[in-house]
Amino acid sequence: MDRNDRLSSFKLDRRGLARVFGELEAEIMAVIWDVPQATVGDVCARLGQDSNYKTVMTVMNRLVEKGALHRRRDSRAFAYVAAESRLAFVSRVSRHVAESLVEEYGALAVAQFVDALDAFDPALLDQLSALVEARGGHAVPEGGEASRPSADAADTPTDAALPADGALPADGALPADGAVQADGAMAHEEVA
Fold first, then answer.
1. What confidence score (pLDDT) does residue 183 get?
2. d(Cα 63, Cα 78) in Å, to the nearest integer?
3. E-strand stretches of 46-107
4. Distance between CA 46 and CA 27 in Å, rounded?
5. What's the pTM?
6. Distance, CA of 30 to CA of 38 (rounded, Å)
7. Which of 45, 61, 82, 142 has most Cβ atoms within 10 angstroms of its Cβ?
8. Burial class of 79 by CB neighbour count within 10 A (0 to 12, 13 to 18, 19+)
9. Which tens digits make up the pLDDT trace of 45-88?
10. Hey, CA dihedral for 71, 72, 77, 80, is it positive or negative?
11. 69 φ, ψ to 5°?
């Protein structure tokens, strides 16, 4: 079972990580991504006085079962770490959602995505245009089918190639060309 099978729902009526995780799961993952590793007690302390130790422990163990967290014994307690960086997780989930929409709805999904970018932030539409241009402008010939470039594993950044902290750039934008530098830092150029 791959990670997409274990985290298979995307809730349109929720925000942020809660679109993929349950509410408490999302809060726990946010804490885990903010620290290198944490025990259940550490997570409870960060969540606040209203958190219940046993409930948090149960949810963290379910996140281990889902493949979102790794657990190892550290003295008397278990230490938990994220299975992947926040950036790697968000990249994987957003790619899975986009692929599912395009597979199911084709050009209509793409058109809606373009309209949404234009309505949300026209600069993002410019970034998309630059990405398409950088990939050789794989345009759909009039009245024809688009040729889909093969997905080459070398084109997909691995967790090792992503920033260690998994943090997105301060402006929230990914590099226009999706490039990751050799040291794991994201190359970021302004798109004209």
1. 34
2. 14
3. 69-74, 77-82
4. 10
5. 0.65
6. 12
7. 82
8. middle
9. 999 999 999 999 999 999 999 999 999 998 888 999 999 999 99
10. negative
11. -125, 155
